[in-house]
Design brief:
Protein name: Deleted in malignant brain tumors 1 protein-like
Oligomer: single chain
Number of helices: 8
CATH superfamily of the largest domain: SRCR-like domain
Shape: elongated
GO molecular function: serine-type endopeptidase activity
Pfam family, one: SRCR
Number of domains: 6
CATH topology of the largest domain: Mac-2 Binding Protein
Number of strands: 40
Organism: Xyrichtys novacula (Pearly razorfish)
Keywords: Disulfide bond, Glycoprotein, Membrane, Repeat, Signal, Transmembrane, Transmembrane helix
CATH architecture of the largest domain: Roll
């Protein structure tokens, strides 16, 4: 029977063996044997000062990927079985090894205890790596730049002799960067440094790694760093779906030509920030759960994504491997980014001005090199500002401040955001503040319909060429004031409900609009997104702006005592005149005030028939001379509205050079009466005279008759004497 001391020694020995053979934290060396290449061969590990092999039970591309990464040998090309590189010797140290594919060393993977296995050397694991690592440098994007390779841990470049799209296609494929777009010549991405490792590279285009292409040999070259090869790939494509914004949504990736989703297992702000950075969408604001942007479709490409937060692309982060996951589309990862915020500055309009973008916590400007209507169209679209009307350069809206951050911006014109366009890179430019880009957009077109006035009616907007309405859910005076301001219609006077101006037609573009009240355009206010609503046209929002009230003042005179001159109205003293205040709208009830500069007295009246009030001046006097203006005042609920004064009406009282009309009338009446009396008296006298004359004639006639009967004396005597 062993003593206690002996048993303790045995236990301690076994513990030491266990610690020596099973502690992954200790790490171990890895090499590839049985091949001329240090990046292809039988996998061997160095444990307890002895090289041994690895059993291929469960060995696949994930384990092989870790080996290639640990050896700086690029990507896995193959994981051959059955001792493709010959039988090993010595102990079989590892069996049933299991890696996620993201580990930096084979020692981080799970496995049986060291030396615990059930296989022979005929099952030694092997791997074929791409020989060297490839990366793209000199660009903000991990999928564009100068081609660099690491050989034996030393970074070098590739000569561009014979370099074309076939070679570029292989690089893009190896880096999971999509398709090759261009192979720019010259120092587009700057000159490299170190050795020029490759020259005369010739690929068919179908290779999985640049190491599989033909080449002159390592270090054999006849060019300098001014001829470093470069490539622009379409990118390990990432997009955000299920949202109106290109910077918010469900994360989708396309590693091999098919769009798929990312599982949200372990998804955090570090992963989300990489996505936002890759999309030029600022920083991650939120990582909502529960498929808030809807369930995706197609393959689930990535799971257990783990980023440090500094990567330029999601493709650089660790994950289980493309297509390896344990979740469904109800767990699709999503992100809400701050966005590459764009604004237009130094203009009265929110849809015109100098182009500025927000990056690195500050607003920066854009160089106008190559800036035209295509780029302007993208800016207008991103800001919901309608169509591009102009693309100005030369700091048309004044010089900005801070850095000029973007140069060489190139858009097709169809992009949803300026972040989707190509550019030289953040902060890379050759221009100053006198060359800043600007744009003039047509604006998020807005109008008020269903009324005779352009400043009152049903609110309608046209975000993409089709007029539609706005739901009145949450519609208040802050929202209405923005509309009135945008239309230069003053302030909101009323926000009537119940489709006062009739029901609209077409799409309902906006719902749950929420403005602060100081925005220059409705496009700056928060809302659910264009076309997202839960209401019908009977809930169309409406507004009556203050400028819908067209207040007017006029002056009339019932007689001819009024003369209009360039200075105003001249009213003859003693004549009457009338001043009338009126409105045009049927939506206003209230009282009018007539203000006079001469007496500073106002007359207040409630609304009269036909929305007008008349102020009578029966006899014009000199104290009535002065400037007159009308003011309208109304109260709706607890809001009091008072219009601005009308333009002053100048009234001048002048003395008459002639008798007043009343005096003339009196004189005429007196003369008429005098003439009437005169004619009456004359008539009476004439009649009396005629009566007297008739009596005399009658008497004379009788006298004449009497004398006719008497014989003349002379005549009878003469006959007797004869």
């Amino acid at each position: 029977m062993k003593s206690v001391k002996q048993r303790n020694r045995v236990l301690m020995y076994r513990a030491c063996l266990l610690l020596a053979f099973s502690s992954p934290a200790a790490g171990f060396q890895v090499r590839l044997s049985g091949s001329k290449s240090s990046c292809s061969g039988r996998v061997e590990v160095f444990i307890n000062d002895t090289w041994g092999t690895v059993c291929d039970d469960g060995w696949d591309s994930r384990e092989a990927e870790v080996v290639c990464r640990q050896l700086n040998c690029g990507k896995v090309l193959d994981d051959p079985r059955r001792s493709a590189f010959g039988y090993g010797s010595g102990p079989i140290w590892l069996d049933d090894i299991s890696c996620s594919g993201n580990e930096r060393s084979l020692s981080e993977c799970r496995h049986n205890e060291f030396g615990n296995h059930n296989c022979g050397h005929s099952e030694d694991a092997a791997v074929t790596c791409s020989d060297f690592q490839v990366r793209l440098s000199g660009s903000e994007s991990s999928c564009s730049g100068r081609v660099e390779v690491f050989i034996n841990g030393i970074k070098g470049t590739v000569c561009n002799d014979g370099w074309d799209l076939q070679e570029a296609e292989v690089v893009c494929r190896e880096l999971n960067c999509g398709k090759a777009v261009d192979t720019p010549k010259g120092p587009v991405f700057g000159d490299g440094s170190g050795p020029i490792w490759l020259n005369g590279v010739s690929c068919s285009g179908g290779e999985r790694s640049l190491s599989q292409c033909r080449r002159n040999g390592f270090g054999k070259r006849n060019c300098g760093h001014g001829e470093d090869a470069a490539v622009i790939c379409s990118g390990f494509q990432v997009r955000l779906s299920g949202s109106e914004s290109s910077c918010s949504g469900r994360v989708e990736v396309m590693p091999n030509g098919t769009w798929g989703t990312v599982c949200d297992d372990g998804w955090d702000f570090r992963d989300a920030n990489v996505v936002c950075r890759q999309l030029n969408c600022g920083k991650a604001l939120n990582i909502p759960r529960g498929s808030i942007f809807g369930n995706g479709s197609g393959p689930i490409w990535m799971d257990d994504v783990s980023c440090s937060g500094d990567e330029r692309s999601l493709s650089e982060c660790q994950h289980n491997g493309f297509g390896i996951h344990n979740c469904g589309h109800s767990e699709d990862a999503s992100v809400i980014c701050s966005g590459l915020l764009v604004r237009l500055n130094e203009s009265e309009s929110s849809c015109s001005g100098r182009v500025e973008v927000f990056t690195n916590d500050s607003w920066v400007t854009v160089c106008d090199d190559g800036w035209d209507l295509q780029e302007a169209e993208v800016v207008c679209r991103q800001l919901n500002c309608g169509k591009a009307l102009g693309a100005q350069g030369g700091s048309f809206f004044g010089n900005g401040s801070g850095p000029v951050w973007f140069d060489g911006v190139s858009c097709s014109g169809n992009e949803s955001s300026l972040s989707k366009c190509q550019f030289n890179g953040f902060g890379r430019h050759d221009c100053g503040h006198g060359e800043e880009a600007a744009v003039i957009c047509s604006g998020l077109q807005i109008r008020l319909s269903g009324s005779e006035s352009s400043c009152s009616g049903r609110v309608e907007v046209m975000p993409n060429g089709t007029w539609g309405t706005v739901c009145d859910d949450g519609w208040d005076f802050q929202d209405a004031n923005v509309v009135c301001r945008q239309l230069n219609c003053g302030k909101a006077f009323n926000i009537p409900g119940g489709s006062l101006f009739g029901k609209g037609s077409g799409p309902i573009w906006l719902d749950d609009v929420s403005c602060l009240g100081d925005e220059r355009s409705l496009s700056e206010c928060q809302h659910n997104g264009f076309g997202k609503h839960n209401c019908g046209h009977k809930e169309d929002a409406a507004v009556i702006c203050s400028d819908a009230l067209q207040l007017s003042i006029s002056l009339t005179s019932p007689n001819e005592g009024l003369v209009w001159t360039p200075e105003g109205a001249e009213v003859t003293r003693g004549y009457s005149f009338v001043v009338t205040c009126s409105t045009n709208g049927r939506y206003f009830d209230g009282q009018f005030s007539l203000l006079s500069s001469s007496s500073n007295i106002g007359w207040f009246f409630t609304k009269a028939v036909n929305h007008s009030v008349s102020f009578d001046f029966p006899v014009a006097e000199y104290e009535d001379q002065g400037n007159y203006s009308c003011v309208f005042e109304d109260k709706l609920h607890t809001r009091r509205f008072k219009s601005i004064e009308t333009a002053p009406l100048r009234v001048v009282i002048k003395s008459s050079q002639y008798l007043p009309v009343s005096a003339v009338v009196r004189i005429v009446l007196l003369l008429t009466l005098t003439l009437v009396v005169f004619f009456v008296v004359c008539k009476q006298r004439q009649q009396a005279k005629q009566s007297e004359t008739a009596a005399v004639e009658y008497h004379c006639e009788h006298e004449r008759v009497d004398f006719a009967d008497i014989e003349p004396v002379g005549q009878g005597g003469r006959e007797e004497n004869s």
